[in-house]
Structures are given as structure tokens and as C-alpha cells.
């Protein structure tokens, strides 16, 4: 992947990809807001494609992202909470699996930041709250004690 960003005028920049281009208009929308929007859009696209591949449909999808950042520079993300709200023709278990598949496997933007950001999520499916403030299984925010795990002798 290659992206070229060039200064246009004032605080406007053009980002060119292999397929398209778009204007980044700072400070109207800051680069960190674009970054967060990209993270959320990555998971949102999974939430449309994964069900579609299972002959299911997601409607009314909304994902809110709430970030807490460092007070001092660099003002990196400390925590990210994603709130998924959607309807579908699947049961709650399958709906939760779609979110987990996106978070743990398919969404490359989330998986890029997961080792340095504590990520949590909530899911409201067909109007019912099915997960609330769950932490990702792995990543910076999880200190899960798995106990001792036996292994095969070497």
C-alpha cells in the first residue's frame, strides 16, 4: 500500500491512493479524527461483509467510537470503546460472533493498535444489549490469568 499526501493550501492536504484521492481539511477534521474514522469504518465494513457471506443481512448499523488520549504529547490513544448498534436476521450469538471476528481477526486497523490501546466494546443487537463494556481478549488492556497450561513433553 502506498499513499502520497501533498500540501494544497492553508491547512488542506490531498491524499492520493492507488485507487482514489481525498482532501484532508485540517483543522475542520483533524488527522486523528480521520484515523479514528478509519478504524471504525474498517470494522463497519466487516459488519456488512461477514453476515453477507453467511447469507444474512445487517441493517441500521451504527458504531460509535470513544477514545481517551494522553494529556501530554504524544497524545496517543490510551483506551478505545466501540459501541455497536445494529439489526439483523441472525440470533444474538451469531451477531456477537460477527463483532468478535471483526475485532479479533479481520479488522487490520484495530489489530494494528491493539497492543498499545485498551479496547472494549458493547453490542446492541435488534434493540437488546447483548454485551456491555467487554474488553478484547488480547491487547494492551488485558491481563488475563490463564493459569498453568500443560503442554506435551518435549
Secondary-structure blueprint:
Layout: E1 4-9, E2 12-16, E3 21-25, H1 31-53, E4 58-69, E5 77-88, H2 92-106, H3 108-113, E6 118-125, E7 128-135
Parallel strand pairs: 5-6
Antiparallel strand pairs: 1-2, 2-3, 4-5, 6-7
Structure keywords:
154 residues; GMP Synthetase, Chain A, domain 3; three-stranded antiparallel beta sheet; 3 helices; 7 strands
Structure description:
This protein has 154 residues and is of the alpha+beta class. The protein has a domain at 29-135: K homology (KH) domain (GMP Synthetase, Chain A, domain 3), CATH 3.30.300.20. 29% of the residues lie in helices and 36% in strands. It is built from three helices and seven strands; from the N terminus they run E-E-E-H-E-E-H-H-E-E. The strands form two sheets. Strands 4-5-6-7 form a four-stranded mixed β-sheet, with helices on one face. The chain has a three-stranded antiparallel β-sheet with strand order 1-2-3, with no helix packed on it. The chain is globular.
Sketch the major β-sheet: 4 strands, mixed
Which sequence of SSEs, written as H and E, runs from N to C?
Answer: EEEHEEHHEE
Indicate the percent of residues in helices. Answer: 25-40%
- According to CATH, what is the topology of the domain at 29-135? GMP Synthetase, Chain A, domain 3
Mean pLDDT: 91
CATH class of the domain at 29-135: Alpha Beta
Contiguous low-pLDDT stretches (5 residues minimum) are 141-146
Strand order of the largest sheet: 4-5-6-7
Radius of gyration: 18 Å
Q: Give the N-terminus to C-terminus distance in angstroms.
A: 42 Å
Give the strand tally: 7
Multimeric status of the protein: single chain
Number of helices: 3
Provide the CATH superfamily of the domain at 29-135.
K homology (KH) domain
CATH architectural category of the domain at 29-135: 2-Layer Sandwich
Task: Work out the strand percent.
Answer: 35-45%
Q: Structural class, from helix and strand content?
A: alpha+beta
Amino acid at each position: 500500500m502506498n499513499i502520497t499526501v501533498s500540501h494544497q493550501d492553508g491547512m488542506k492536504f490531498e491524499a492520493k491512493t492507488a485507487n482514489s484521492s481525498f482532501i484532508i481539511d485540517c483543522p475542520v477534521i483533524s488527522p486523528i479524527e480521520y484515523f479514528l474514522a478509519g478504524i471504525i469504518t474498517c470494522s463497519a465494513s466487516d459488519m456488512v461483509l461477514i453476515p453477507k457471506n453467511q447469507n444474512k443481512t445487517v441493517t441500521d448499523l451504527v458504531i460509535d467510537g470513544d477514545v481517551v488520549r494522553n494529556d501530554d504529547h504524544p497524545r496517543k490513544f490510551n483506551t478505545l470503546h466501540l459501541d455497536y448498534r445494529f439489526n439483523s436476521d441472525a440470533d444474538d450469538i451469531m451477531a456477537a460472533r460477527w463483532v468478535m471476528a471483526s475485532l479479533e481477526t479481520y479488522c487490520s486497523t484495530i489489530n494494528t493498535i491493539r497492543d498499545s490501546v485498551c479496547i472494549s466494546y458493547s453490542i446492541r443487537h435488534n434493540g437488546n444489549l447483548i454485551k456491555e463494556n467487554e474488553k478484547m481478549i488480547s491487547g494492551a488492556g488485558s491481563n488475563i490469568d490463564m493459569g498453568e497450561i500443560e503442554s506435551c513433553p518435549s
